[in-house]
Amino acid sequence: MLLKQIQYFLAVAECRHFTRAAERLFLSQSALSQQITKLENDLNIKLINRDCHPIELTPAGEDFYHYAEYILHDVNQLHEGMKKWQKPHKHTIHIGMIMGLGGLPLSDFLAAFNTRYPEARFTLEHHLSKELCHMLTEGQLDFAIFAAPQNIHSYPFEILPIQQEPFLALLPPLHPSASTDYFDLTLAEKEKFIFPTPENVSYDILLKACEDAGFKPDIVSYCSGAANRIDLVKAGLGISIVSESALRYHRTEDLVIRPLKNPVYKHTIMARLQTTMPSSYKEAFWKHIQQELS
Asked: Could you give the domains of the chain?
């Protein structure tokens, strides 16, 4: 079992789709599928049920997923701890990003830049938005792509807006709002909510949305991933509010999805430190992304 196989499995588990996971990892679908099959053969355990669409994790796969998250976190911590001893390639661009960038064709952007600057190198790593803000502030990254926290303007960042996506209400079929065209958050004071964990930027955004609607939400469960929130809504534990892009990778046919009457948005941005003098390559990369986005 190799570390890259653990990383590949986590991507598939998050996307619940081999093609989308392969796009995220910059791999071919066949190469990714072969690595997952090799992992399963090495363990002599079936981790993924490929007969479902989208795919589902087996009970063993769910267990493996939780262990794999801890392992990858420890490896990332080790990598960060060793950075101070490294002599980085002078043309290496370090980029941090969140999972699930929706329709952003980042791989195409990187490939186009590499065509113009073939000596440039990239390192890409995934973290939650709040952690990316901290890493960028500490100089551990050159650029970061993340969901903007509500206090984004308190950071010493220069910002490029990337996309704005709405949050949507996820409801059980018999919910009273299932027969309406939208979900009115001002009428949701008595609802039981399934929220993202406080480490997620979405937690702050949704908490403020509820407060603006005049109530403090009754949160019955916190889940870091959208897939878990969807499952809990299906199980009847409560309702949830999920970003539009998160719903692209998960089965929701048994649920009702409604826009919010008063829209709430997640703003994805790319940021860099204002106070750091960039190299010519990093400045060229920033301008390249500006042009691609425009």
From this structure: 3-82 (1.10.10.10), 99-162+268-293 (3.40.190.10), 164-266 (3.40.190.10)
